[in-house]
């Protein structure tokens, strides 16, 4: 079983993956900007018989990353870069400070934390990095310029780091799901309804699920299952890859 640090793990996809992998017997380091909420997820894992701890982590801060890695009880064998946020607006109405912040969290922050854990992984001769990308790592939607740019960048970043770590037993891959029913997606529904001038029900049926031939939201169990595969011996030669869970979106 592995020691797994998950960013943005106090809610949504991060919490879902943390709970699933905790049940599988891994030690989960639940990290988030909100330490209280992270602590609650860690408590749930322990109550279910698993092993977990929580740590405050701001991926946009070198100091926070260093403090978090110094505070945890064991080395990071697996890093799941999940922290993310969304802002829906036309570019002309998109505050540039907000645009920059999204990229700082979802792209530069991934590089910052990956950079911090790589020396230890190299020293131990093992490491697995799993980036939570998005269908928007591959395709675009209007009104999401910062998010789409960051998630596209994540795929390129993963390919470069795969080459830089090819000399040791470290891999890095990106999972790209279409819509997962999370608080982030729930808030997007209202934003998209306002921006597009349609009802929230139409956003779900026409914007989110219509592009997916299977027509259903992606589940936490699917994301955790793919993550479990990527950190298993069966995937030791899979690196720099983009794994797409999109209900058939991109095959059309």
TrEMBL record:
Coiled coil ranges: none
InterPro entries: 3-OHbutyrate_DH (IPR011294), NAD(P)-bd_dom_sf (IPR036291), Sc_DH/Rdtase_CS (IPR020904), SDR (IPR050259), SDR_fam (IPR002347)
One term of GO molecular function: 3-hydroxybutyrate dehydrogenase activity
UniProt-listed GO biological process terms: monocarboxylic acid metabolic process
PANTHER family membership: 3-OXOACYL-(ACYL-CARRIER-PROTEIN) REDUCTASE, 3-OXOACYL-[ACYL-CARRIER-PROTEIN] REDUCTASE FABG
NCBIfam families: PHB_DH (TIGR01963), PRK12429.1 (NF009093)
Family: Belongs to the short-chain dehydrogenases/reductases (SDR) family.
The name this protein goes by in its record: 3-hydroxybutyrate dehydrogenase
Species this chain originates from: Pseudoxanthomonas taiwanensis
Taxonomic classification: Bacteria, Pseudomonadati, Pseudomonadota, Gammaproteobacteria, Lysobacterales
């Amino acid at each position: 079983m592995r020691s797994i640090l998950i960013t943005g793990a106090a809610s949504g996809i991060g919490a879902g993956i943390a709970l699933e992998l905790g049940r599988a017997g891994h030690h989960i380091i639940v990290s988030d900007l909100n330490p209280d909420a992270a602590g609650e997820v860690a408590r749930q894992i322990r109550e279910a018989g698993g092993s977990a701890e929580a740590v405050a982590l701001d991926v946009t801060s070198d100091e926070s990353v260093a403090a978090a890695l110094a505070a945890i009880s064991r080395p990071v064998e697996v890093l799941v870069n999940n922290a993310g946020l969304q802002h829906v607006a036309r570019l002309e109405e998109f505050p540039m400070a907000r645009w920059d912040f999204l990229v700082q969290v979802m792209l530069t922050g991934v590089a910052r934390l990956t950079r911090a854990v790589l020396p230890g992984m190299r020293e131990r001769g093992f490491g697995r990095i799993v980036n939570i990308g998005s269908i928007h790592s591959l395709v675009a939607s209007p009104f999401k310029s910062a998010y789409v740019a960051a998630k596209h960048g994540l795929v390129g970043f993963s390919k470069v780091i795969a080459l830089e770590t090819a000399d040791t037993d470290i891999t890095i891959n990106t999972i790209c799901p279409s819509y997962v029913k999370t608080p982030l997606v729930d808030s997007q529904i209202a934003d998209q309804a306002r921006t597009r001038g349609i009802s929230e029900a139409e956003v779900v049926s026409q914007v989110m699920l219509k592009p997916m031939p299977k027509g259903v939201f992606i589940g936490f169990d699917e994301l955790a299952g793919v993550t479990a595969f990527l950190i298993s011996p069966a995937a030791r030669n899979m690196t720099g890859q983009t794994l797409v869970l999109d209900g058939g979106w991109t095959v059309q």
